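Practice set, problem 2.
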Amino acid sequence: MTWPFLVFLLIWLFCLAGTFIPAVPATLLIFGGALLTAWLSGFELWCDLAFFITLGVLTLLISLIDNVASAWGARRYGGSKQAIWGALIGGVVGIFIPFGLIVGPLLGALLAELLIVRKPLLLAVRAAWGTLLGVLGGVAAKFTLHVLMGLYVLWRLWPTASL
């Protein structure tokens, strides 16, 4: 195995664990690791351009998953527009607290439903529950896409790893 292969493998494994920690920008680190390995292995513009365009599009899509999934979950379970905004704001605030990935959107949607929309507790909890399901589904999707993204890079590096 070559240095670029091992470097990316270590970055990727760290990022897989980092998928569950909001403060770790795992998607961007995987993309950065792919750029680093391309540079270490001799970047060739025309060979690597399509590869990096594909990875860049994946990176953008994965970056949207958390927010879109929590908002979708809130809406699916009867949450108002305010609950969706509460979930989005709670997700951003949640970056700075332990277990914030789960607690932030959940509390944001719940508080928005209770304090702004003034829904009854049971309906507000239902919208918050939908937010939680959306967040967990988003994390599962993000982890799966991180696995596929990493395997794609490792597969691309494999022919050079055996040299």
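Problem 2, part (b): a different protein.
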Amino acid sequence: MVSTVERQKVLNKKLQEKKSDILMDALTYIKELKQKVDDMTKECGDSINKVDPSPTMDVKVEKLENNRYAVTVTCEKVQDMLVSLLEAFEEECLDVLHADINCNQIFHFEGIVEDDDGTFDVEMVTDLILEVLENKGVKKDTRV
């Protein structure tokens, strides 16, 4: 008859073998997942390199009443974009009456500007904004 001690040794040995098998299976699975991640990263990396990294822009200017213009500017975030835009407005005597700005992942400006002299039109305001964007290195994509 098999003693309790011997039976315990046999059970412990089988348990250790099971643990080893589980660990080996887990390691194999982890290696497979790592390979899949590496393959996907390589695929994505190749497609990312094909994308033009130059910032693009969208500018809309709409005439309102009393020499006011609704201005919308969207482009990729570029350092000091807001400052450059506001300085250009100030240099041309365009007053910013209202502005909503989002600089989280892109630069987005929605505002109302006023021309005190009445010398500007939609095209002139648009050209002013486009000049600022181009001076900041933003690539022209669309002009609405």
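Answer key, part (b): The radius of gyration is 32 Å. The domain at 56-143 is CATH 3.30.70.260 (Alpha-Beta Plaits).
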